[in-house]
Request: fold
Amino acid sequence: MTQRQRHIENMGPGASIAVTGMGIVSSIGNNVKDFSESLRMGRSGIGFLKTKTDPPISIAIGAEIAGFSFEALLREYETGGLAGDMIRKARIGAGRSPLGVQAAVIVAIEAWKSARLHDVPLNPDRVGVIVGGSNLTQDYTSGLYPKFQQSPEYLNPRYPLHYLDTDHVGTLSEIFQIRGEGFTVGGASASGNTAIIKGCQSIRSGIADICLVVGALADLSPLELQGYYNLGAMGGKKFRDQPQKACRPFDREHEGFIYGQASACLVLESMDS
Reply:
Protein backbone atom coordinates (compact mmCIF):
# COMPACT_ATOMS: atom_id res chain seq x y z
CA MET A 1 0.00 0.00 0.00
CA THR A 2 1.42 3.39 -1.01
CA GLN A 3 1.65 6.37 1.34
CA ARG A 4 -1.20 8.06 -0.51
CA GLN A 5 -3.41 4.96 -0.27
CA ARG A 6 -2.78 4.73 3.49
CA HIS A 7 -3.53 8.45 3.80
CA ILE A 8 -6.85 8.16 1.93
CA GLU A 9 -7.82 5.13 4.01
CA ASN A 10 -7.34 7.16 7.20
CA MET A 11 -8.98 10.34 5.92
CA GLY A 12 -12.73 10.74 5.55
CA PRO A 13 -15.03 13.61 4.56
CA GLY A 14 -15.11 14.85 8.16
CA ALA A 15 -11.48 14.13 9.03
CA SER A 16 -9.75 16.84 11.03
CA ILE A 17 -7.22 19.18 9.47
CA ALA A 18 -5.10 21.41 11.68
CA VAL A 19 -3.80 24.93 11.15
CA THR A 20 -0.26 24.56 12.47
CA GLY A 21 1.32 27.79 11.25
CA MET A 22 0.35 31.34 10.35
CA GLY A 23 2.03 34.39 8.83
CA ILE A 24 0.95 37.86 7.78
CA VAL A 25 2.19 41.15 6.36
CA SER A 26 -0.26 44.05 6.55
CA SER A 27 -0.72 47.75 7.20
CA ILE A 28 -1.09 47.08 10.94
CA GLY A 29 1.63 44.50 11.46
CA ASN A 30 4.31 42.58 9.59
CA ASN A 31 3.89 39.44 11.69
CA VAL A 32 1.11 37.61 13.51
CA LYS A 33 2.04 38.99 16.94
CA ASP A 34 1.97 42.65 15.87
CA PHE A 35 -1.14 42.14 13.75
CA SER A 36 -3.02 40.50 16.64
CA GLU A 37 -1.99 43.28 19.01
CA SER A 38 -3.23 45.91 16.54
CA LEU A 39 -6.60 44.16 16.30
CA ARG A 40 -6.94 44.04 20.08
CA MET A 41 -6.02 47.71 20.39
CA GLY A 42 -8.38 48.75 17.57
CA ARG A 43 -5.64 50.29 15.43
CA SER A 44 -6.42 51.28 11.86
CA GLY A 45 -3.91 51.09 9.03
CA ILE A 46 -5.93 53.37 6.75
CA GLY A 47 -4.30 56.69 5.97
CA PHE A 48 -3.37 58.98 3.11
CA LEU A 49 -1.72 57.12 0.25
CA LYS A 50 1.99 57.90 0.07
CA THR A 51 2.34 56.65 -3.50
CA LYS A 52 1.67 59.49 -5.94
CA THR A 53 0.41 58.87 -9.46
CA ASP A 54 0.84 60.75 -12.72
CA PRO A 55 -1.78 61.79 -13.62
CA PRO A 56 -3.35 62.05 -10.15
CA ILE A 57 -6.31 59.73 -9.50
CA SER A 58 -9.43 60.18 -7.37
CA ILE A 59 -8.29 57.73 -4.69
CA ALA A 60 -6.41 59.45 -1.87
CA ILE A 61 -6.70 57.00 1.04
CA GLY A 62 -5.96 53.35 1.67
CA ALA A 63 -4.17 50.88 3.92
CA GLU A 64 -0.69 50.58 2.45
CA ILE A 65 1.97 48.33 3.94
CA ALA A 66 4.26 50.85 5.62
CA GLY A 67 8.01 50.36 5.82
CA PHE A 68 8.11 46.93 4.21
CA SER A 69 11.71 45.79 3.72
CA PHE A 70 12.21 42.29 2.36
CA GLU A 71 15.86 42.18 3.39
CA ALA A 72 15.24 43.53 6.90
CA LEU A 73 12.50 40.96 7.55
CA LEU A 74 14.71 38.16 6.22
CA ARG A 75 17.46 39.22 8.63
CA GLU A 76 14.99 39.06 11.54
CA TYR A 77 14.15 35.45 10.72
CA GLU A 78 17.81 34.66 10.13
CA THR A 79 18.84 35.95 13.56
CA GLY A 80 15.82 34.13 14.99
CA GLY A 81 17.45 30.82 14.15
CA LEU A 82 15.81 29.89 10.86
CA ALA A 83 17.87 27.71 8.56
CA GLY A 84 20.42 29.75 6.62
CA ASP A 85 19.84 27.73 3.45
CA MET A 86 16.18 28.77 3.34
CA ILE A 87 17.06 32.44 3.86
CA ARG A 88 19.74 32.21 1.17
CA LYS A 89 17.26 30.74 -1.30
CA ALA A 90 14.75 33.46 -0.42
CA ARG A 91 17.31 36.18 -1.16
CA ILE A 92 18.23 34.60 -4.48
CA GLY A 93 14.70 33.67 -5.51
CA ALA A 94 12.82 36.81 -4.48
CA GLY A 95 15.39 39.53 -3.83
CA ARG A 96 14.40 41.33 -7.05
CA SER A 97 10.80 40.18 -7.24
CA PRO A 98 7.72 42.44 -7.15
CA LEU A 99 6.23 43.44 -3.80
CA GLY A 100 3.52 40.77 -3.92
CA VAL A 101 5.98 37.90 -4.35
CA GLN A 102 8.26 39.23 -1.61
CA ALA A 103 5.30 39.58 0.76
CA ALA A 104 4.21 36.01 -0.03
CA VAL A 105 7.69 34.72 0.77
CA ILE A 106 7.83 36.56 4.11
CA VAL A 107 4.42 35.32 5.29
CA ALA A 108 5.26 31.78 4.18
CA ILE A 109 8.52 31.89 6.14
CA GLU A 110 6.68 33.02 9.28
CA ALA A 111 4.05 30.30 8.88
CA TRP A 112 6.67 27.65 8.11
CA LYS A 113 8.64 28.60 11.22
CA SER A 114 5.46 28.78 13.33
CA ALA A 115 4.60 25.22 12.26
CA ARG A 116 8.21 24.17 13.04
CA LEU A 117 8.47 22.47 9.67
CA HIS A 118 12.13 23.46 9.56
CA ASP A 119 12.79 21.17 12.56
CA VAL A 120 11.45 17.93 11.06
CA PRO A 121 12.30 15.86 7.98
CA LEU A 122 9.68 16.28 5.25
CA ASN A 123 8.85 14.38 2.11
CA PRO A 124 8.78 17.22 -0.46
CA ASP A 125 6.45 15.21 -2.70
CA ARG A 126 3.82 15.27 0.07
CA VAL A 127 3.86 19.06 0.55
CA GLY A 128 1.70 21.30 -1.65
CA VAL A 129 1.33 25.04 -2.17
CA ILE A 130 -1.82 26.93 -3.18
CA VAL A 131 -1.89 30.68 -3.82
CA GLY A 132 -5.21 32.53 -3.73
CA GLY A 133 -5.60 35.52 -6.03
CA SER A 134 -5.63 36.64 -9.66
CA ASN A 135 -3.94 39.45 -11.61
CA LEU A 136 -1.47 39.94 -8.78
CA THR A 137 1.16 42.17 -10.40
CA GLN A 138 -0.90 44.98 -11.93
CA ASP A 139 1.08 47.81 -10.33
CA TYR A 140 4.39 46.14 -11.21
CA THR A 141 3.33 45.97 -14.86
CA SER A 142 2.02 49.53 -14.82
CA GLY A 143 5.29 50.80 -13.36
CA LEU A 144 7.33 49.27 -16.19
CA TYR A 145 5.25 50.75 -18.99
CA PRO A 146 6.70 54.32 -19.09
CA LYS A 147 10.25 52.97 -19.44
CA PHE A 148 9.05 50.47 -22.04
CA GLN A 149 7.57 53.32 -24.10
CA GLN A 150 10.93 55.10 -24.10
CA SER A 151 13.26 52.12 -24.59
CA PRO A 152 11.47 48.80 -25.13
CA GLU A 153 14.78 47.00 -25.64
CA TYR A 154 15.65 47.67 -21.98
CA LEU A 155 12.56 45.95 -20.57
CA ASN A 156 13.51 43.82 -17.57
CA PRO A 157 14.04 40.29 -18.97
CA ARG A 158 12.46 38.86 -15.80
CA TYR A 159 9.15 40.54 -16.59
CA PRO A 160 7.69 37.50 -18.44
CA LEU A 161 8.22 35.49 -15.24
CA HIS A 162 6.94 38.07 -12.78
CA TYR A 163 3.73 39.06 -14.54
CA LEU A 164 2.39 35.51 -14.26
CA ASP A 165 0.52 34.73 -11.03
CA THR A 166 2.27 31.36 -11.01
CA ASP A 167 5.53 33.17 -10.22
CA HIS A 168 4.32 33.06 -6.61
CA VAL A 169 3.96 29.27 -6.78
CA GLY A 170 7.31 28.73 -8.47
CA THR A 171 9.21 30.99 -6.09
CA LEU A 172 7.67 29.45 -2.96
CA SER A 173 8.22 25.92 -4.28
CA GLU A 174 11.90 26.62 -4.88
CA ILE A 175 12.54 28.27 -1.51
CA PHE A 176 10.75 25.62 0.56
CA GLN A 177 11.69 22.68 -1.68
CA ILE A 178 8.04 21.84 -2.30
CA ARG A 179 7.56 19.13 -4.91
CA GLY A 180 3.88 18.38 -4.39
CA GLU A 181 0.91 19.87 -6.21
CA GLY A 182 1.03 23.65 -6.63
CA PHE A 183 -1.30 26.11 -8.34
CA THR A 184 -3.12 29.43 -8.07
CA VAL A 185 -6.87 29.75 -7.57
CA GLY A 186 -9.09 32.78 -8.05
CA GLY A 187 -12.39 33.80 -6.54
CA ALA A 188 -12.26 37.62 -6.54
CA SER A 189 -12.68 38.78 -2.92
CA ALA A 190 -13.12 35.16 -1.83
CA SER A 191 -9.80 33.98 -3.30
CA GLY A 192 -8.25 33.40 0.13
CA ASN A 193 -11.19 31.30 1.32
CA THR A 194 -11.16 29.40 -1.97
CA ALA A 195 -7.47 28.60 -1.50
CA ILE A 196 -8.13 27.28 2.03
CA ILE A 197 -10.93 25.06 0.71
CA LYS A 198 -8.71 23.66 -2.04
CA GLY A 199 -5.92 23.11 0.48
CA CYS A 200 -8.25 21.06 2.69
CA GLN A 201 -9.47 19.11 -0.34
CA SER A 202 -5.87 18.41 -1.34
CA ILE A 203 -5.14 16.89 2.07
CA ARG A 204 -8.41 14.94 2.35
CA SER A 205 -7.99 13.47 -1.13
CA GLY A 206 -4.53 12.18 -0.25
CA ILE A 207 -2.64 14.46 -2.63
CA ALA A 208 -0.70 16.08 0.22
CA ASP A 209 -0.04 15.73 3.95
CA ILE A 210 0.87 19.39 4.34
CA CYS A 211 -0.34 22.37 2.32
CA LEU A 212 1.03 25.90 2.32
CA VAL A 213 -1.93 28.21 1.59
CA VAL A 214 -1.09 31.82 0.70
CA GLY A 215 -3.51 34.69 0.32
CA ALA A 216 -1.62 36.91 -2.09
CA LEU A 217 -1.32 40.68 -1.98
CA ALA A 218 -3.49 42.44 -4.57
CA ASP A 219 -1.06 45.07 -5.86
CA LEU A 220 -3.51 47.24 -7.80
CA SER A 221 -2.29 49.88 -10.25
CA PRO A 222 -3.77 53.38 -10.59
CA LEU A 223 -5.88 52.01 -13.47
CA GLU A 224 -7.71 49.49 -11.25
CA LEU A 225 -8.05 51.96 -8.37
CA GLN A 226 -9.63 54.60 -10.59
CA GLY A 227 -11.78 51.94 -12.24
CA TYR A 228 -13.23 50.78 -8.91
CA TYR A 229 -13.84 54.42 -7.99
CA ASN A 230 -15.69 55.10 -11.27
CA LEU A 231 -17.70 51.92 -10.77
CA GLY A 232 -18.86 53.18 -7.39
CA ALA A 233 -17.34 50.23 -5.53
CA MET A 234 -14.55 52.20 -3.83
CA GLY A 235 -15.44 54.12 -0.68
CA GLY A 236 -13.76 57.01 1.10
CA LYS A 237 -15.44 59.98 -0.57
CA LYS A 238 -17.24 61.43 2.47
CA PHE A 239 -14.29 60.82 4.77
CA ARG A 240 -11.55 61.75 2.34
CA ASP A 241 -9.95 64.03 4.95
CA GLN A 242 -10.50 61.56 7.80
CA PRO A 243 -9.15 58.28 6.42
CA GLN A 244 -9.38 56.34 9.69
CA LYS A 245 -13.15 56.86 9.67
CA ALA A 246 -13.62 55.78 6.05
CA CYS A 247 -14.02 52.01 6.52
CA ARG A 248 -17.57 51.57 7.83
CA PRO A 249 -19.14 48.51 6.13
CA PHE A 250 -22.07 48.23 8.57
CA ASP A 251 -22.75 51.96 8.89
CA ARG A 252 -25.51 53.96 7.21
CA GLU A 253 -22.80 56.10 5.63
CA HIS A 254 -20.96 53.18 4.06
CA GLU A 255 -19.82 53.81 0.48
CA GLY A 256 -17.82 50.78 -0.56
CA PHE A 257 -14.56 49.06 0.23
CA ILE A 258 -11.30 50.80 1.12
CA TYR A 259 -8.22 49.57 -0.71
CA GLY A 260 -5.67 47.84 1.48
CA GLN A 261 -2.52 45.76 1.05
CA ALA A 262 -1.89 42.49 2.87
CA SER A 263 -0.69 38.95 2.39
CA ALA A 264 -1.20 36.00 4.72
CA CYS A 265 -0.34 32.32 4.93
CA LEU A 266 -1.66 29.22 6.69
CA VAL A 267 0.04 25.87 7.05
CA LEU A 268 -2.58 23.11 6.89
CA GLU A 269 -1.74 19.59 8.02
CA SER A 270 -3.59 16.33 8.33
CA MET A 271 -3.82 15.21 11.95
CA ASP A 272 -1.76 12.11 11.14
CA SER A 273 1.01 13.92 9.25
